[in-house]
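Side project, low priority. Logging it here so it doesn't get lost.
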Amino acid sequence: MLIHHLAAPRILIVEDEHIVARDLQQQLEELGYEAVGHAVSGEQGLAMATRLKPDLVLMDIQLGSAIDGISAAQQIRASLALPVVFLTAFAADDVLARAKLTEPFGYILKPFAERELRTVLEMALYKHKAELGLADSAAQLRALSRRVLEVQETERRRLALELHDELGQSLTAIKINLQSQARFRASSPEALGLENIRIVDDALQQVRRLAMALRPSMLDDLGLAPALRWLAEQAAARSGFELQFQALVPAERLSAEIATTFFRIAQEALTNVSRHAQATQLELVLQQSELELVMSINDNGCGFDPAASRGLAVAGASLGLLGMQERAMLIGASLQIESSPGRGCMVLLHCPLSTTGATTGASA
């Protein structure tokens, strides 16, 4: 018997011989499939496939209609991207060569045994599922690639404006003061010197702020737990939510890759909470054992639909969640996001620690 699925695969039969179609339907049901319909022509098969959206189409090649099985399969693949398995009593080379052009997911020669039917259908369904997963991964990769370029250009523009409008202004003011000292003897050198020192101090603060935005130095100097506490406290101060922070980690330092990934995922999660969640409470817990590092972020905000957000991400609208998933995957971690409208959000990050995952004296 067929291995049980969460939902029985839905099969559309396109066969112009009623006895064969009835026998097929009975075998499919015995194997655990759902026969959703029976078409007797290529035109009817195309219409029913469009309307019913089955998981797979069993298509007889030789149909007594204006559109034969091969032409119908070609249109179904092109317009609906459904897998098609051909039924045929003929194995002529020219027929098979034409059928191959439709990229079928298998052939079943009449007469066929139940084992053969089950094997071909299961392989076709598995192949189609794998293709869908590959297509989804490719779409996510394209979306992430676009987002990387967009973020890169946005960050470059931001840094250019910061350097021009703030640091550039400070340096210009110092230059004017130095020129004034040479041109106007009435100006007090001490006053100009103090003014220059004040401007230099402001410029140093601006440089430190820019550097902190690019990568907090405490992540390298003190480690992940202090950096996460600083990040969460900054978010709480800006957004006004009550923060509960707990770090149960040993003194050993984590690898730079793991520490950076956890920090950036927390940064994205806290940014989302500040922008969208309308939360009044947030809890961030970091725990480390010999086997794994775990971080959980829970808020009591308005929540959202993660599946819908992932769909928007693939379409290129918002890639925050997708970027978090990608960061986790690159270090072999698993990221779980649970939320629903009105019920807050939980972000749970698990990362297995190998013998090189946590090393004393690492740089993060």
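Brief comment: The chain has three domains: 10-112, 143-214, 217-352.
Revisit when time allows.
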